[in-house]
Amino acid sequence: MWDTLIIHPFTNLLLWIYSLIANVPGAFGWAIILFTILIRIVTWPLNAQQLKGAQAMQELQKDKEWQAIQKKYAKDKEKLAQEQMRIYKERGISPFSSCLPTLIQFPIIIGLYQAIINALASAPLGLLKLARGLYPTLNVAALIPLNSRFLWMDLSQPESIPIFGFNLPTLALIVAITTYIQSKLTMPASTNPGDQTAAMTKTMSIYMPLLLGYFALTFASGLSVYFITSNLLGIFQYAVTGRANWRNLLPGGDKQDKQDKQAKAKVAK
Amino acid sequence: MKSKNILFVLVVALAAVLLSGCTGQGLTNSWPGLASDGETVYLASGQFLYAINLEDGKEIWRYPAKSSNSLQFIAQPVLAPDGTIIIGSAGSDHRLVALDPSQLLSSETVRTPAEKWIFTQARSSWVAGALILDDKVFAPNSDGILYVLDLQDGSSGSALQRINLGGALWAQPSTDGNLVYVASLDHYLYAIDPNTYEFAWPAIDLGGAAPGTPLVGPDGNVYVGSFDSAIVKVDPATGADTLLTSTQGWVWSGPVSDGQSIYFGDLEGNLFAVDADSGNQSWSIQPDGPVVGSPLVISENIVFATESGTVYAVDSAGAIVWQRQVGGQIYTSPVAGTDKIIVAPMQAEFSLAVLDTTSGNQAWTFTPEN
Questions:
Q1: In this predicted model, what pLDDT tens digit does every residue of A173-207 receive, in sequence order?
Q2: Which of B218, B225, B316 lies closest to B276, judged by CA?
Q3: A91 in a domain, yes or no?
Q4: Interface pTM, i.e. ipTM
Q5: Is residue A268 part of a domain?
Q6: Residues of B in contact with A127 (CB under 8 A)
Q7: For residue A117, what is the nearest residue in chain B, using CA coordinates?
Q8: What is the extent of the structural domain holding A238?
Q9: To bridge B226 with a disulfide, which of B208, B244, B249, B289 should be the other Cys (CB 3.0-4.6 Å)?
Q10: What predicted TM-score, i.e. pTM, was given to this entire model?
């Protein structure tokens, strides 16, 4: 089931893109980049929904009615949960809309990784698996084995550059940094100390760069190419939709942002 | 918030496990290698090379004595006339080792043969077995280099020659005594003079990757299959190639011959019998799954195994003589051992099964002890 629904389509799509650009140097790396762009375009509505959902949750935290309910039922968790669901329903907020796209990323990451390993087929079992999963319309016999070289990398292996006797994991660092930047750009400022959404986002902005950096360090560098491309496209998406919070990138930027918002709120009062 | 953090960490850990666990990049990335000298079966599987008594299925020795995560044995073990056994590792330790089974070292639990020499200069995996010709070892590596080593001392730094062929070499070379034939995943068949190490003729483009050993046929011609779904016939004197026959699926392993016809399988599950002269197909059968390994010609029958874990014996007319469901998936070519047939399934309850040649009845199975 997993193979049929995820691995085979991903592998065939990758190979199809590769077949279009097979003569370009580093074709498989470019195929991964184009594949990522395609995935990003397909999941663009989901990502937009995530941003919208996060914003709605954020606005709810500032809502006076919700704050009053939180205060009133502070000691009655069950009642608070019921009221929370009522407010979600009334205002058309889906609590899962903000995390669904993130969860969807995981099967894509796992599927892509397996597709990359299958397509590069560095061992007999992998090549056999690849042969079994090819769609009849795709004639790749002439393309196999794929060229796994892209720039300085072997996309089937974890990447590092030897510098002064030390292997510097360049891609893992870039993955961690771009993931951090993307997380920071989407992290909204919150004036409410009990804002769970903001706290969760802050936690994610710490864990996600570490996690993806670890993946990049451990697994085939083709996956890192996916992460970096995906992060850059994410940053681009936030920027063009006007939701990127660039001040968060500056040291103390998020605190400054909070102070500004608090000052504005006072002026408004 | 603490519980949410814990949940997040658990999700992350699960993703990491899925990513690493579902990829098949663990210890098993190929099927076992198998060989026999008629008395002993040699099974290259996982972290060990096992020597097993063909009579009773008992382990005689294993190499190395202790498991090592950096070693993985999938290549066909190669037996030299002097008893030396040569096997390469497909693990992160890319060693090619020559073992002397006449000198067994005993520990508390296992016996292991002495290492005659170890060659460590290859840059990638040893997927295919080596070819021994006179006193030379022609060892194909996934780094695209055919290493020529001295059979008596192939240790590091003493390679007689490194012949850079380009693509990954997953096929054991073959020879007619005059030339060494090497098929490559780069789609080419190479013919190399074993004395001068020069190419006898320009490499032949097979149209697809060729992971199977070329067959030197009874007529002296060379037959090789490829992912171009075809068998190509090559005149070794001139290097002139002709398409012998086309198949439905990719041809993985090398063809074999009984002196008249040549036999080979494809990934669509066919076994073909083709006249070596005319290329006319005598017959074909399509039993129950892809035929990855080479067939075995034994006792006037052709024995082959399918991915479905079934071993078939067919006669020279293509009629099934017997069939035996062994289990698991069989990709390794069956090998002969006196009056027995040895198969090495993957993902079965055992690592080795020995069948009677005439009836297909299972004599014994072998499962390595931890």
A1: 999 999 988 887 766 655 555 556 666 667 777 78
A2: B218
A3: yes
A4: 0.87
A5: no
A6: 209, 211
A7: B23
A8: 2-263
A9: B208
A10: 0.81
